[in-house]
Specification:
Largest sheet: 7 strands, mixed
Number of strands: 9
Distance between the termini: 60 Å
Structural class: alpha+beta
CATH superfamily of the largest domain: Hypothetical protein, domain 2
Strand content: 5-15%
Oligomer: single chain
Number of helices: 16
DNA sequence: AATGCGGGGAT
DNA sequence: ATCCCAGCATT
């Protein structure tokens, strides 16, 4: 065994967090927590985990649910493909694996939404198998301990870290070790202002010795942000509201929203009303514009959404429009993007 | 190897 | 503003 593991485990026993998914070895709950926590902080995901386990205590109940209900419970958490994959994977567990989770990473990896990280997490934490997890915390901690200069977001870098992480693993208690390493990264070896002064590994941290802690890990990735202009038509007709389900390969897939007109840049209402898709929706009806709400800019990781909501009232709907209408009171049953949720809370009661 | 996918918190 | 977070799927 290496020097690192016992120190990490000792620190974890004293300073680790008490989290609900650490109090079970049920692979369903561990899998669920891991999917919720993909690219998501513990503080943000905790409430979702509690609500999901309350509503869906086992994989069968999750498999039996509708995708819309799962998306509604997922609303606000982001990366909605996780929710759709969660549903599909639950059905595969029931249908293909007889309701029992497989233990080996290769089999887990075959489930939708389960990649290298989640497969290793479930295999080690639920089944005690010796697989090291590799997530953002592990990259950072190892890059610092060994002062690794190779960028983590490249194939070569990834291979180095896979090897390093696996070589350090405590194969006697892989699940506890993995959680200890991640907690260590989340609480002590943080991205900014790590607490090296109270770090039990300071004595063997090569980056600390070299003064490069703030430079590790090295990443080469650059993100460019696209701007988009969304114009929503909030159409009310006799207590009913028009909603559409987002399809295709775009943001918010599977969520509901008002009928949307997108433009390449800023646009005013007359320009929208002249479009064919607008006239298809409202052409013949006696509609009137009763309000315009310019939403605050909505920032996603790779997109900035400029959204405006046009409130429109009409006494009658075309057949095409009527097919999209739901009762105003039922709008709350549909999962909507945060942007629309804010609008509904702020401007619509 | 690159790209797209959310939303929130920390700095 | 920028970065990051218990990553994954697609191209």
């Amino acid at each position: 065994m290496n020097r690192i593991a016992p120190i990490l485990l000792d620190w974890y026993a004293r300073s680790g967090r008490d989290l609900p998914w650490r109090r079970t070895r049920d692979p369903y709950r561990i899998w669920l927590s891991e999917v919720i926590l993909q690219q998501t902080r513990v503080g943000q995901g905790l409430g979702y985990y509690l609500r999901f386990t309350e509503r869906f205590p086992d994989v069968c109940s999750l498999a039996a649910a509708s995708e819309d209900e799962i998306l509604k419970l997922w609303q606000g958490l982001g990366y909605y493909s996780r929710a759709r994959n969660l549903h599909a994977a639950a059905r595969e567990i029931v249908g293909r694996f007889g309701g029992e989770f497989p233990a080996e990473p290769d089999a887990l990896r075959s489930l939708p939404g389960v990649g290298d990280y989640t497969a290793a997490a479930v295999a080690s934490m639920a089944f005690g198998l010796p697989y090291a997890v590799l997530d953002g915390n592990v990259f950072r901690v190892l890059a610092r301990l060994f002062d690794v200069e190779v960028p983590v977001d490249t194939g070569a870098g990834r291979r180095i870290f896979v090897e390093l992480a696996q070589s350090l693993l405590d194969t006697e208690r892989p699940g506890t070790y993995n959680q200890a390493l991640m907690d260590f990264g989340a609480l002590l070896c943080t991205p900014a202002q790590p607490r090296c002064g109270e770090c039990p590994l300071a004595g063997c941290c090569l980056a600390l010795a070299a003064g490069t802690v703030a430079l590790r890990p090295v990443k080469q990735g650059r993100t460019k942000v696209r701007e988009r202009w969304f114009h929503y038509l909030h159409i009310s007709c006799e207590g009913r509201t028009l909603l559409c389900r987002r399809e295709g390969r775009d943001i918010w897939q599977g969520l509901y929203e008002f009928p949307l007109l997108e433009t390449e840049g800023p646009a005013d209402f007359p320009a929208l009303a002249a479009r064919s898709d607008f006239r298809e929706l409202l052409g013949d009806a006696e509609w009137r514009l009763v309000g315009t709400v310019v939403m605050p800019r909505h920032q996603l990781s790779h997109q900035t959404i400029h959204a405006t909501v046009y409130r429109i009232e009409t006494p009658s709907l075309s057949a095409a429009a009527a097919a999209l209408a739901v009762d105003t009171a039922a709008v709350g049953d549909y999962a909507v993007p945060r942007l629309l949720e804010r609008y509904l809370l702020e401007y619509d009661g």
